């Protein structure tokens, strides 16, 4: 029996299609998440001393509840979080679009037209024409273009979720660090204020001694100069504290008067900075690096770039789609008409001057760039953790010596002041002793401030408590806007 034409076409076409499918599957990349190229162990000393705490909501582990309040205010009204959430919603919408491309589409149409016609003889006829139709289309995903495009969209949606968490961790760290700087600024201002009060008394005593002829006029000039210098430094320090308040207003979105009322409640006690609870750092860096949302985002972008290579490669091969339509129309005084059509459509790339191949090369270059970005992100993460550990260890070792320096310089100043009042020490010696004591106090406060800042840096470097798969929640301001939008 002689084979029919469709049979002969199928005999030629099906093996060719099968070979193309096998070639496309072989060329399409299979993504495997890279292992972080991290060292086997941290080189810096790990902070295992003291109480151990968890990373989850680490800002609530401060001994000052104001830290948690400020961060809650910032999270409720943060433009950066709203922006990150919008990026996440956009990525999810793109994912929905990508998934829909692999499913059939169905469109319906309907129309009704009423018309009047009048002949030359004056007779008129009026009629109504009605029509309805359905159009269906479906692109067969022969070479996994739709699937790879969906994979890329899903990976980028996950990346945007990680970006939101990274923005939240960064915001919490910035608010906590700014608050600690403000508290330290106030402690420094109080130290300068106490020294200024002491200098006022010294200046008065020196002026009285000069008037009585016991001291030279140069002593009075030195006392006034020292007082003026300390007053100027105090004013500068007070201004710095005001600037930090402005920064907190910007970060939290709160009114400044209400924020100042909150800041006036010093729940840590006079002369002490808020301190976070300690935490245990895992000794295996690779485990720690999986807790960083920024690295999670980079890895998901790498996965998306890998899927983009598959999308570009699928364009090198034919595409097959099915389409069909049904239409019904009827006019007044006439019988209805029904029509339908259905069939496949095959598009084969023949010549494009290397455009599709260039798209593949571009996608592969983007993948290499994303891989380099991920590797650099891992190195940066290791560096940040190592630096925070070194700084923490350094400040811990220096704290005891700094406190001893404060006590000894204060003792030396009080002894020098007593000798000066007895007339056995010069005013210059007294002022030098005063400057040394004040410098020791400033160094201690600065060291304490930096130590808390390094703890915050370590929390941030370790991911701030983020874990892969942690859900995100919209900011309060975005929820309110959504409710008010018609």
Q: Structurally, how many domains make up the residues?
A: 1
Tally of contiguous helical segments: 11
Q: Unreliable segments (pLDDT under 50, ≥5 consecutive)? A: 49-53, 479-486
Rg result: 37 Å
Derived structural class: alpha+beta
Task: Describe this entry's structure for a reader.
This protein has 486 residues and is an alpha+beta fold. The chain has one domain: Outer membrane efflux proteins (OEP). Helix content is 63%, strand content 11%. The chain has eleven helices and four strands, in the order αααββαααααββααα. Strands 1-2-3-4 form a four-stranded antiparallel sheet, with no helix packed on it. β3 and β4 form a beta hairpin. α2 crosses α4. The C terminus is likely disordered.
Comma- or semicolon-separated keywords:
486 residues, Outer membrane efflux proteins (OEP), 11 helices, elongated
